[in-house]
Amino acid sequence: MARRASRYVCQACGNVTPKWAGRCEACGAWNTIVEEPAEPRPVPAAKAAGSGRRLEFLPLAGESAPPPRTPFGMPELDRVLGGGLVPASVVLVGGDPGIGKSTILLQAATRLALAGRRALYITGEESVEQVRLRALRLGLSAAPLGLAAATSVSDIAASLEAEREVALVVIDSIQTMWLESLDSAPGTVAQVRACAAELIRLAKSRGFALVLVGHVTKEGAIAGPRVLEHMVDAVLYFEGERGHAFRILRGVKNRFGATDEIGVFEMTDRGLIEVANPSALFLAERRGNVAGSAVFAGVEGTRPVLVEVQALLSPSPGGSPRRAVVGWDQGRLAMLLAVLETRAGLSLAAADVYLNVAGGFRVTEPAADLAVAAALASAASGRPTDAAMVFFGEVGLSGEVRMVGQAEARLKEAAKLGFTAAALPRRRTAQGRSLVVPEGITAYEVGHLADLVAGIAGVRGEVARGKGQKASSRPKTLRLGSEGVSRPVGDEP
Predict the structure, then answer these.
(1) Comparing 75-276 with 281-428+435-457, is the CATH topology the same?
(2) How large is the average pLDDT for residues 103-109?
(3) pLDDT score of 490 more than 70
(4) CATH class, range 281-428+435-457
(5) Is residue 172 within 8 Å of 163, Cβ to Cβ?
(6) Domain ranges in the chain?
(7) Which range among 4-13, 103-112, 346-355 shows the weakest confidence by mean pLDDT?
(8) Which of 26, 262, 463, 474 has the CA that lies 20 to 30 A from 93?
């Protein structure tokens, strides 16, 4: 009998090698290469006689209606998806274990079923009784939702082919599915890729929306081949700290809507509850008279979000100061500390620096640079920032403060929550008109980081000499020099 051909595939990145090795040369992971049967090589198109057909090329101009959508009835989830589910679309949802992926999908599926649509929930990790117990705890047991426990894609495909007018199918999770035609174990690269392809083909042909739950690796990426994220129409990540009740559903890919959109939820004993105003939630426990705190006016997708940035400095007992960050990029903090010390005269080399974004929220946009710098300057000088002021702006290596997008949306959100001042970069809108500042907001343009530090510390260079001052009340203006703010936005010099 002829020996079956095989290949060696890395289970972390999907790289194929001709022989086994202890370390993958593509991603550097150890002990992840597994032997799998070789897939049949496809016949080249040029050699497939008579198998091709001519394509009909259509003009770019034409009438195309927006895709119809089916809302879940959960505004936060519908926002991330771009308004609701699109028929025949495929959504991949990833997140840490226990973060709430199965809970939110069970809630969404039951709401769709209660609205009169046919929804099916197929679990490969739990039994039907376990799902029923969760539904009973969440008060969803009365919903006409179809449940099944299965791992064979062949059985699932045969069952879905017999169904009529299905609107939604949830697969929890794709790593537990397997095909009999492959000899590899469930969860391997070959099984995940083949099972996802078969389920996606079925969803496209039958016209129902498919939601796949994906496990994540210890680095936070969805486990399995990277091609899985390219095969689907939308990729959503469920984020949050286990010690916090807040959960963030973040869209990183969406062919039918905006990317980087977020939905905010709160985990309770009755399931996930939507948070309509996340800014008020993240700022609910803020104290404005503490040094080392600043409010950042950020934007996630199309939604402005205000969060508190906290900084703490302490003397370093050893020769290597510690830099600890929660909710922000550690590399960007190191860069900002270097700019503060070199360009603004803020001496931080001998201090341990701790930075935290309150509420378990993670900030990814560079517009948070100015708020972080304000929090660090406030912590170093011992003087609180203005409790009624928000900060946003990107900081360059020369210390200049660069403009960021959607400034007016940030200011409107700040005005809605009662803030009366904002420190922002010098900018004009793309149309050449002045920045429209909401009524009740006094906006100050910041040109250089040194002027922001001087405005918080009171006297330029005082922080560098270590002469901290006592905390004072809110300054009347940001007393910045010729390179920075000397007037509110919109006033002529």
Answers:
(1) no
(2) 95
(3) no
(4) alpha beta
(5) no
(6) 6-37, 75-276, 281-428+435-457
(7) 4-13
(8) 26
| Whether pLDDT at 94 is above 80 | yes
Given a cut of 70, whether residue 133 has pLDDT beyond it is: yes
Segment 24-35 shows an average pLDDT of 84
Q: 75-276 has which fold?
A: Rossmann fold (3.40.50)
